[in-house]
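Hello again, I could really use a second opinion on something today. I've dropped the whole record in just underneath, so have a look.
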Amino acid sequence: MTGRLFRIRGLVQGVGFRPFVWRLANELGLTGWVHNDGAGVIAAVKGENWQQFESRLRSEAPRLARIDAIDCEPAQVPGDGFVILASESGEIKTAIGPDAAICPECIADLCDPTNRRWRYAFTTCTHCGPRYTVSRGIPYDRAQTSLAGFPLCAPCNDEYAAPSDRRFHAETTCCPDCGPQLSLLDAAGQALAGDPVAETLRLLRAGHIVAIKGVGGFHLACDARNADAVAELRERKQREAKPFAVMGLNAASLADFARVGEDESELLQSVAAPIVLCPKGARELPGIAPGLAWLGAMLPGTPLHLLLWHEAAGRPDGTAWINEPSDLLLVMTSANPHGEPLVIANAEALERLSGIADAYLLHDRDIVIRCDDSVLRAGPAFIRRARGYVPVAIPLADDGPTVLALGGLMKNTICVMKGREAFLSQHVGGLDNAAAIGFLEETAGHLLAILDVRPDIIAHDLHPDFPSTHLALRLAEKFGIPAQGVAHHQAHIAAICAERGVAGPLVGLAIDGVGLGPDGGAWGGELLRLEGMGCERLGHVQPLRLPGGDRAAREPWRMAVSALHDAGLAYRVGGWIRQYYPGRDPAPLLTMLDRNLRCPSTTSLGRWFDVAAGLLGLRDMMQFEGQAAMELEGLATAHGPVPPLAGGYALREQGRVLDLSPILLALMGCKDDAAYGAALFHATLAAGLAEWTVLAGQVPAGGQVAVAGGCAMNAILMAQLRSHLERAGISLLEARQVPPNDGGLALGQAWLARQAASTR
């Protein structure tokens, strides 16, 4: 009898899609079959309700599924009943999905005293749990995961084999009888008596620091309300001022300290369970995010984390307690010695976190690959793309050779471009030590393994001294394939082209820190026109000199002195220094600038943020990358919007150069109102960037402009720039699936390497 054949493409393998189809077909009285194939899932149905079946495929798809397309055609469907068939022979490579937060059904199991998974920290099903971080390769099955050493008990095996059960072919399913177990050790590595979760909570309440093994690595946790514990954590971790993230049970628990709107709440409760940057609330948590306008908030996304709050609530039956406010707020920060990669192994934790952690909450399920927490701002806009999103593919407009791109130096990620999909790795971070470089190599090998690909091209940054460049050249030699160098800021704009499917000419505004330009210069504030691999520099921000080289990038007062000197305002430096930085002597810097000694030049827009922060007296030295700019944004946020300064910028050299020096005197005049000065700088910069882009970029009304780079992380700047361009009839193309900073660089490198290959 004639029926219908459905071909479903997307993330539909390894997410419980076949049993979902089986249950739906049986509910609708349809006969037929379903199986996996190399492209997705194929289902054949016969019966009157096939149209309802098609509609509900989309509307009721499993929690972790993503349907990209459904094709339907008439077909002969013999037989009675509905069955799940074995996968077709040939290339069946079940995709590995991202790690997913615990689902409502597993929470109910966890909180039901009659359930055999009552308070079991590794409760999972096809709708939730670890995937990426426990997988060693494909196909995605238990033998290829770190659960391979935990054979299923009879009840779990029955669930695994039953299509009607949500644990049907759930590769990480387990229970207290057959799965991983918790243990709690003291600082010396000796086991502590009692329930590990209850004892961990007691230690945290008492002000101790506990290393907690999560899904993608360890967290260092302490009581976020305990200022002494927070200060102690900062001292032990050598993290003077960089913000911490805070985990709370729900939005209500965070309400005093963070303004959680609808968009923020949706992100917090998503299956990815990321850290979400929320505007700060009426009360401040001392030492958590000093000087910043945002608080990084997250909710318990794993059974283990949730059990801490269940314990704090008194172990109630049922799930109603989850919606009640809780006073328990915990700092959850990446567990690693200063500047090193995230700790993932038990023995590694005891060694590398010695002197930092007072206790260790461990389990015996291995983490195969480290994967830090993702960080987003409502929009959504990625700050860091990692756990919960990796390795979800970014769809591409075109096919091409397989490319491995190795990213840059800071905020490193890698990208594998395969067919019409790009796979961006988790956040690797700065490559400034041997351990971090080793993590880069480990990540590249793991991503190639789980995708089962061999690259045709290796892409890398133009900078010859980056460890990522060195690795790219080694791998190119190993595979016997070409290596393609890509200019830093060209890659930033190309990342927008890749994710937005833009192939034609595109004007891009690269607003960034410092990256090597094709001319060998230190670029960072560029107006570019991209067309494939071709790139034309239409303009740049007025160069700044860095007295003392890289040191100036860490000391905003130096950048302020440089800007004043080169604007003909050196005579104002002495009085300004005495007012804001009386311990600093500007004379050597002024001499260096006069003689142009050790004063390399850069067009970086990021350094102009340092100039503004230095002039306003925010700080003379940064304790972490981008601190001055983030504090400047925080002040501007607190103040609120102001009009741009008339004449606060100038367009020079027929509009090719954006000069921000006209605003310097106005900023110096804001000595009693730094917040107003910060707001004025943002407003004037946004207006200047918009006018410059329209003029130098020759962008007509109805056109598009791409914006990327580290400065595109600034929410105020982007909102105001967007508004100016919209009034000019120009739409802004922004990064949505990847971070606009160097975390998205590898995507642009891979896209450009493909463009270069097509022209050979």
Remarks:
- The mean pLDDT is 94.
- The radius of gyration is 27 Å.
- Residues 2-84 form a domain with the Alpha-Beta Plaits fold (CATH 3.30.70.100).
